[in-house]
Amino acid sequence: MIDGNGSSDGSGNGNGVGRRRNDPAQYDELAGEWWRHDGEFAALHWLAASRAGNIPPAGHPGALLVDLGCGGGLMAPYAARLGYRHVGVDTGVPGLRLARDHGVLPLAASALAVPLADGCADVVLACELLEHVEDDVGVLAECARLLRPGGVLVLDALAAGRLSTLVNVHLLERLPGGPPRGLHDPALFVDRARLLEAADRLGLDLRLVGLRPSLREAVAWRLGRRRLVTMKPIRSTAVVFAGYGRKR
């Protein structure tokens, strides 16, 4: 799920003594958690269901969905249901193996240099990826290159700013269902204004929407009464946001 080199805030974390934040090795070590709805990556299941609701059904036979930073392939059931060929791009081999087992066509590559043709994709996903790379605009440029005219872009990411750091690092990394300790480096969180400016320059019409989990459903999930929690759209994009767009 990681491409590029993560920076460090100099702190250790609960997954290893002295390990820098945003260390890609965490994903390999936690590969067994990908498909557990009550595991370390539970919130990624919630986000996967949310983004699936913003992907149109395939418009023609052989329509291609390219999933950048696919991890263990959590989008696989949704892509299949919507009628897409699903190519998953990642640098993590354990995750790609899991994705392949769930029907994804795996491609070991960086999201900054995907070995696929220009304009090949009907849909590109760049989800829970941009806050893990040093060149988020470079990833966005690769999304634009891969998309055909009229193609759909779906992304979600963590916003840059003090509130986002407080919530996503200091709070959620300590709560069940939140990200594992040390998974995120706030120095890499996404500047939304810069992202929108880059999207326009790259020929992408992109809008951002804030997201938060349903608190009632989150409590039910914690009590073992739900497998998934609905991600609700909100006005503020200051913590977690989704982006929905099309290539002009």
Report what the structure shows.
The protein is α/β, with parallel strands linked by helices and 248 residues long. The protein has a single domain (25-247), classed as Rossmann fold (3-Layer(aba) Sandwich), CATH 3.40.50.150. Helix content is 29%, strand content 23%. The chain contains 8 helices and 8 strands. An 8-stranded mixed β-sheet has the order 3-2-1-4-5-8-6-7, sandwiched between helices. Strand 1 (64-68), helix 3 (76-82) and strand 2 (85-90) form a beta-alpha-beta unit. Helix 5 (136-146) runs parallel beside helix 7. The longest helix is centred in the N-terminal third of the chain and has 11 residues, at 42-52. The protein is globular and about 45 Å long.
Tally the beta strands.
8
**Overall number of domains:** 1
CATH superfamily: Vaccinia Virus protein VP39
What is the gyration radius calculated from CA atoms? 17 Å
CATH architecture, please? 3-Layer(aba) Sandwich
Query: Cα distance, first to last residue?
Result: 28 Å
Proportion in helices: 25-40%
Topology (elements, then pairings):
Layout: H1 25-29, H2 42-52, E1 64-68, H3 76-82, E2 85-90, H4 93-101, E3 105-108, E4 121-127, H5 136-146, E5 147-158, H6 162-171, H7 192-201, E6 204-213, H8 215-222, E7 231-234, E8 240-247
Parallel strand pairs: 1-2, 1-4, 2-3, 4-5
Antiparallel strand pairs: 5-8, 6-7, 6-8
